[in-house]
Amino acid sequence: MMERLIIKSDSINTWLSKIIETVPRVLAPVKIGSKAEFKEIKDAGSVAYDVITTTSSIKSAAFPNTETLFAYEKQGLETKLYDVAEDNFLDTVIWGARPCDAVGFGPLTKIFNWDYKDKLYNERFSRLVVVSFACDKADECCFCTSVGGGPGNTAGSDIMLTKINDEDTLVEVLTDKGSKLIDLCKDCFTDADDSVDKESVLAKVPVKFTREQIHEKLAKAFESPIWKAQSERCLGCGACAFVCPTCACFDIQEDAHGNHGRRVRCWDSCGFTLFTQHTSGHNPRPTQATRWRQRVMHKFSYMPDRLDIYGCTGCGRCSRACPVDMNIAEHLTNIANNE
Amino acid sequence: MSKLSKDTAALLSEGTVKMIIGYEQGTERPRPAFCHTPEDCERLIFNDQCSNNLAVYLTKKEIIGEDKVGVVGNYYVIKTVIQLNLENQINLQNLVLMTVDGDDIITFGSIDEMQQYVDTHEPVPNEKVLAAIKKIDKMSRSERWEYWKSELSKCVRCYACRAACPLCYCNRCVTEVNCPQWIEPWASPLSNMEWQINRVMHMSGRCVGCGECAAACPLELPIGILTKKMGMDIKNTFGGWKDGSVLSTYNVNDKENFIK
User: Are residues A60 and A247 in contact, defined by beta-carbon separation less than 8 angstroms?
Assistant: First the structure.
């Protein structure tokens, strides 16, 4: 489905206020110091719109940094198991996502349904409604157009808003879920006529390479010296993976207290030296170079081969978060041009 | 070609060193650069924006191997090399340490020369950090507790602070030990706090004050003021940084007035 509507700028907050009144949880970008993060908002006025991307992605709405898989209690010879979801699976509107945030749920959903259907992820994801704002500006780290996206790409969004001018904002209603949000404030919208064109107001994001180019190069690059050269300055932290909208590697930990405890799932990163370290001490990825290779291969080779989707949305968060400027678009461009 | 590029390229072509670690222009600011050939050295730059503490690479065997390397570092790199040497973590025979001072390339021939440079080139203190410390000093104990609880509950445990710190060189960090598990390895308000307290305690008297832990934090948490404040407390209580590692040095004249 697809419906094109117009909302007046001064009605946007009226509509958002209705959403906040009705929906249990609304997450939106909020300024924190010089940066912005998705936070729960209770007031329409607290949204930071003048933000290219938040520091962290919105993946935690469906895949939290730390979550309890189950809790257990031993009673004599019996062991009782309990389902625990700290967030109670709240119906959630993500307001002010960027196209590169919305599209990130595609790879995440495929990963969490590859073989085992992950109940916790699916429960949370099914309760999300994504209201995206098309980008009218980009920075040097943005490269969505090189990985199949774009500043006005609607994939993954339930509604997309594009500010056409100071008065009018185009509202593309893309799913039934989106439609229900429109119903909360029907008077706020009028039909958009065909002449309303969003392309002209979108940010210009130059294409640096194509995903297919990278995929083809990677097929022969496993033993390439490029991994060592590119990863030399990498410090081996998890900043890139933790801010990424599609990185889904996790660790399972035990929070045991005598006869009761819980099993915890928390984010992991291929940057860490302990990533895929075996109990024996052997590690199939013993150096930063092999772990950096894993990062690129996973997103641009293994995922398209196995899941028919790429693991990168071009949001550029990893590049902005990296303490030593491991600019992924620059590295990918070099891979694309590598003979 | 700049003098910096020319001099470093000569070290490589003469075979004095196998690699030069310096700075090159990055996306928005300078970043660490690794030069293996004289041509690579053309990329090298040095200015006030060159802030990464390059000494972090000197304890990474997979990067420097057994070969002699050259490093063109800033003030804090030099200060860190002195500390790493004190802690027996580097082989000075395999290091050519340089910095740029105006138009001059300074090559350090000994720890004494490094120490003299550090003593005479102390950077202006970061007013922002000092102001933040002042603000926290004025808080009551409970206000301070609430402040740190709120700030550190945002930590995602990406360990960028640990990775960027040249003195966090343990092969196996305490957070990665699970028999027994000292600190919960997942993000939670309590374990985040435990992690940062641990990090700062391990840095006490060793921290050179480069501030790279805070600069590395993707969430901009104010963790740099923890190490800075600890450094100030150590200085007031036990004397300056160059008097040795405070936690491994015993002196009968040590004050004990902090034991309550």
Answer: no
Residue A1 clears pLDDT 70, i.e. is over it: no
Q: How far apart are CA A70 and CA B100, in angstroms?
A: 57
Sign for the pseudo-dihedral over CA of A23, A24, A28, A31: positive
- Which ranges of A77-219 does DSSP label H, i.e. alpha helix? 99-102, 105-111, 119-126, 176-183, 211-218
Least confident of A266-275, B105-114, B179-188: B179-188
Interface of A with B (CB under 8 A): 32-35, 37, 55-56, 65-66, 140-141, 232-233, 235-239, 241-243, 251, 253, 255, 264, 266-267, 269, 272, 274, 287-289, 319-321, 323-325, 327, 330
Q: What pLDDT, in 10s, does the model give residues A49-63?
A: 999 999 999 999 999
Give B186→chain A minimum CA distance, Å: 6
Shortest alpha-carbon distance between residue B168 and chain A (Å): 11
Count of helix runs (H) and strand runs (E) in chain A: 12, 12
What are B100's two structure tokens?
């740029």
DSSP letter for A310, please.
-
The verdict on a CB contact (< 8 Å) between A327 and B185 is no
Is residue A72 a contact partner of residue A259, using CB atoms and an 8 Å limit? Answer: no
- A66 chain-B contacts, CB cut-off 8 A: 186-188
pLDDT beyond 90 at B242: no
Question: What was the ipTM of the complex prediction?
Answer: 0.94
